[in-house]
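Quick entry between incubations.
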Amino acid sequence: MAATASFVRERLAEYGAASQARMKEYLRGGRAHEGFDALVADYPERGGRSLRASLCLATARAFGARPSEALNSAVALELLHNAFLVHDDVEDESEARRGSPTLHLRHGVPIAVNVGDALAVLSLRPLIENVEALGSRLALRVLEEAERMARESVEGQALELWWRQHNVIELGEADYLRMVLKKTCWYSTIYPLRVGALIGTRDGVGLDRYLRFGFFVGAAFQIQDDLLNLVGDEARYGKEINGDILEGKRTLMLIHLLGAANAEERVLLSRMLGSPRAARTLEDIRWVRERMDRYGSIEYARQVAHGLAGAALHEFSLAYGDLPDSPDKRFIEALPTWVLERT
Amino acid sequence: MAATASFVRERLAEYGAASQARMKEYLRGGRAHEGFDALVADYPERGGRSLRASLCLATARAFGARPSEALNSAVALELLHNAFLVHDDVEDESEARRGSPTLHLRHGVPIAVNVGDALAVLSLRPLIENVEALGSRLALRVLEEAERMARESVEGQALELWWRQHNVIELGEADYLRMVLKKTCWYSTIYPLRVGALIGTRDGVGLDRYLRFGFFVGAAFQIQDDLLNLVGDEARYGKEINGDILEGKRTLMLIHLLGAANAEERVLLSRMLGSPRAARTLEDIRWVRERMDRYGSIEYARQVAHGLAGAALHEFSLAYGDLPDSPDKRFIEALPTWVLERT
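Done. Structure below.
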């Protein structure tokens, strides 16, 4: 167990160092004005574990690609990830990101929207420059995948916003998983793995299996992330504990609670979720949290995450099983276990 | 004069019809949920004159391209234009767009940020599908140009936001023109013309001359647009009259006034521009407007626009002069005059 964590940490550090070094080149100034350069570099420089870049680099290398061949695609993904974070923080009215105030809290919504756009635009450049290392055909295939991924991501975000805006509470596990597939898995796991395989095999393998493996491991990851928001350590986690309840986020735990609660509690929950964020009190949040414990919502979500991680391990053997042993392959194999164990 | 206006209107209608028909295909549903499809289609369906698509289609055709060859690039541009409008309206706290309330006023900032992202992502697809009609090499060249254009645009927006956020008032004509070059001209004129020429000549012509022609005609267009915000007819114009003053927008007229005003007026202007938008009264706006008249700021801006349009006509002869006569070529030639005359 501890061995898994330290092995994954080691690999993440190596992939992350490579992608962050390259990312710095893309973040180098020369834009509109000095202040803008600093704003654009703010989130990327707050760190993060470069998980998405690592999945892409590891898969490409597991298939025999040279380390440099997937680097541009990995960097593009990290830039886009930061673009999403900036806009998501605005949309979710989040207050902290990676241990510091969110960009829009520091500089206002107008600047944050613009900086998110700038990061998204910046993510295009390494993909276009892919032509040099990969040739036109493969570079265009990666762009095709990127377009699909970006589309799924904004649709997933739209779905979640819609639920919140219209105070939708008639939701089941299938709704939750569809939202997470689109909002989180496509860009966090599915796309990095697909592009890694695309580059590693020179477009020589079917990509559906990466959709499945990526979905299982990505959904387990998201549920675990939401669990950490309830039971984690704020200093290590970097966001407000119970912030998801405050934001009215439809987590699997909340959806379970909505299904398990009695009629009276459901009315209270619906009223609380339908009120503006500022009207929710600490008392409300404690009440929700206590009901989640009482109805076993947290334990239930843990079990779903475990089931998904198990399915991911099975898919791993189909998608990666034939490849020769390598640290890159072992890194991918370790992920389903690592996802459940991280704190 | 009237002949110019009706000829341009006719051509715009033809180019616009082609690009809007194709745009509808890209806006067709199948996304996250029904409500989302309607939100994404909202701004595009409010109409507009498809000026950007028209510039692209006309230039490509003037160089002998088949009508269909530049259509995807034209549609991508209109989608991105709508993405920019949604985010710009959030960033500028605008209240009306094309005669109706802005998207964020109707649905809130979170949804508007997401819908703007969705439109930007949607604009990628026709560019990737360019491969079918243009081949990989040329499709990638168009993508390269698109990346440059998008970068210039967000940087231009960043510059303007910075001026407002930090209440910068030490600005001259050169600062204004640099901002307009980046924020408006690159995506409204320079890029459409460059991509039209790229496709029409199969990457067979230098693109610098389109930068100059596009800048001159685009800057004249923007100044005229800002003038209409002061002296236009609200019903035809579709935005609030004097809305720019309310927003603290650094127009050429405001920059001229800041330079011409006496010390006392300058202090008052700076204080007003530095206060929150909600603190600006109708009385403030009338005062600014009256000072613009007194110091000839409006007449000055009109003269700059005329000078730019003249320069555009000269550049036209260099960039398009050798081409055989066609309605497409005549349309481009008519633009500098049309820009000054539209109401």
